[in-house]
């Protein structure tokens, strides 16, 4: 089956009623063997291509993933025609692709903001809430610029922007609501001789019950169990992002731009250049805040290190208020520590000098000791060279049991002692 036809017949839609009527005729064309002009879809794809404006100006543009994108640039992301979850063949990009582009922008440090160009009647429910939330929570500023129509799913997406511009008093905004429209083709095919058979497993008593009720003309179950729940989430998102929205705007009405401002759905009517300038200003503020945040992160790290030096834990350092008085106290403590450090360095230098003197004195004593030892060894060697052995009778010492004199000094000693 044609993919577009499949989406039309099987999806719940957030779409303006005027465009849904067009889809009814499209379904009729496709069922009768007609085709969609692929050339027209190629034009739609070209119109929906995202790009980057260098430095916030319209003079030079780059591809979204161009590596040479200058710092401070802005991404321009069109959301035109019917919104579908996946890319259409030769047609507009789906919400999944747009989400990937927003992620790429937020990861690129050279892109500071996003401008959405919107001209859409709405589209599929599936993934619309995901794209809308990604825009609402984008760390970089997002501005929406309406170029004709912003209805239903398109408004769900745009609501999370930092500001919404319209290009003209005749731009239309609104259609907050959910719808299901379908054609029961069974009678048509039965006339052609087609016989339908449908049955479920024994325990599958609720299988396709809601849709069967719809086919039989009972819409309440599908309305409360499906459409109402989607609509509740849609309205909750609008109220969260646009707190000033009037209750009158939540019933599905469409408004011209001036009335949309009064209803809280739109902020301003202006030119593309004014929306571009506003986005550039937000982008510049974002860059300044980001730079300040980075500086604060660096200072916070240094502050924690400093407080840790004084014995504070990380939690205590984070909780410690950096007042003028506290900074003065830290200055005094640092001054005291500096004085103590200087005194310690002087003492260390003094001890080092004393140690060197002691080492020098010890070295001198060692030299003196070595000289004394050498002199002693020389005397000992000289004395040993003068020793003799007594072998003559006249050298014998007389007396009781005289022992032979062996060395000359023994003989002198005996003589000295009178022996």
Structural overview:
This protein is an alpha/beta fold. It has three domains: 3-286, 2-enoyl-CoA Hydratase, Chain A, domain 1 (Alpha-Beta Complex); 321-386; 388-419, no CATH class. 52% of the residues lie in helices and 12% in strands. It contains 14 helices and eleven strands. Strands 2, 3, 4, 5, 7, 8, 9, 10 and 11 form a nine-stranded mixed beta sheet that branches. Strands 1-6 form a two-stranded antiparallel ribbon. α4 runs parallel beside α5. It is elongated and about 145 Å long. 24% of the residues are buried.
Features:
2-enoyl-CoA Hydratase, Chain A, domain 1, 419 residues, 14 helices, alpha/beta, two-stranded antiparallel ribbon, 12% strand, nine-stranded mixed sheet, 3 domains
The shape, in one word, is elongated
* Total individual domains: 3
The helix-strand sequence is HEHHEEEHEEHEHEEHHHEHEHHHH
Class of the largest domain in CATH? Answer: Alpha Beta
What order do the helices and strands come in, and which of them pair?
Blueprint: H1 3-10, E1 13-15, H2 17-31, H3 38-47, E2 51-53, E3 61-62, E4 73-80, H4 95-107, E5 111-120, E6 122-124, H5 128-136, E7 142-151, H6 153-158, E8 163-166, E9 172-174, H7 186-191, H8 209-215, H9 220-241, E10 254-256, H10 257-262, E11 268-269, H11 272-309, H12 314-319, H13 324-385, H14 408-416
Parallel strand pairs: 4-5, 5-7, 7-8, 7-9, 8-11
Antiparallel strand pairs: 1-6, 2-3, 2-4, 9-10
Helix pairs in contact: 4-5
């Amino acid at each position: 089956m044609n993919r577009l036809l499949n989406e039309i017949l099987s999806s719940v839609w957030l779409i303006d009623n005027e465009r849904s009527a067009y889809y009814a005729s499209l379904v009729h064309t496709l069922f009768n063997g007609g085709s969609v002009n692929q050339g027209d879809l190629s034009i739609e794809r070209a119109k929906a291509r995202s790009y980057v404006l260098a430095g916030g100006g319209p003079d030079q543009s780059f591809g979204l993933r161009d590596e040479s994108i200058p710092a401070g640039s802005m991404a321009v992301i069109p959301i035109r025609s019917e919104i579908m979850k996946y890319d259409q063949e030769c047609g507009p990009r789906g919400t999944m692709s747009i989400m990937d582009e927003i992620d790429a922008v937020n990861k690129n440090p050279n892109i500071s903001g996003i401008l959405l160009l919107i001209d859409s009647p709405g589209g599929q429910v599936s993934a619309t809430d995901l794209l809308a939330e990604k825009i609402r929570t984008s760390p970089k500023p997002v501005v929406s610029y309406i170029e004709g129509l912003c209805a239903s799913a398109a408004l769900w997406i745009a609501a999370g922007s930092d500001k919404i511009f319209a290009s003209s008093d005749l731009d239309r905004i609104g259609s907050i609501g959910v719808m299901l429209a379908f054609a029961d083709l069974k009678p048509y095919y039965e006339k052609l001789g087609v016989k339908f058979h449908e049955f479920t497993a024994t325990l599958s008593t609720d299988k396709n019950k809601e849709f069967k009720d719809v086919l039989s003309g009972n819409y309440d179950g599908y309305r409360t169990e499906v459409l109402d729940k989607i609509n509740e989430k849609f309205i909750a998102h609008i109220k969260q992002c646009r707190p000033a929205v009037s209750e009158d705007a939540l019933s599905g009405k469409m408004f011209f731009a001036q009335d949309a401002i009064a209803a809280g759905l739109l902020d301003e009517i202006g030119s593309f250049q004014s929306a571009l300038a506003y986005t550039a200003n937000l982008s510049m503020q974002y860059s300044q805040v980001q730079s300040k945040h980075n500086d604060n992160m660096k200072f916070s790290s240094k502050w924690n290190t400093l407080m840790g030096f004084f014995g504070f834990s990380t939690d205590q350092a984070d909780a410690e208020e950096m007042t003028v008085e506290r900074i003065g106290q830290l200055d005094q403590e640092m001054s005291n520590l500096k004085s103590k450090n200087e005194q310690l360095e002087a003492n260390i230098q003094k001890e080092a000098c004393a140690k060197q003197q002691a080492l020098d004195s010890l070295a001198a004593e060692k030299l003196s000791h070595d000289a004394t030892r050498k002199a002693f060894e020389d005397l000992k060697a000289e004395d040993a060279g003068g020793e003799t052995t007594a072998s003559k009778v006249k050298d014998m010492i007389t007396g009781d049991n005289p022992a032979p004199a062996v060395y000359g000094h023994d003989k002198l000693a005996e003589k000295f002692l009178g022996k």
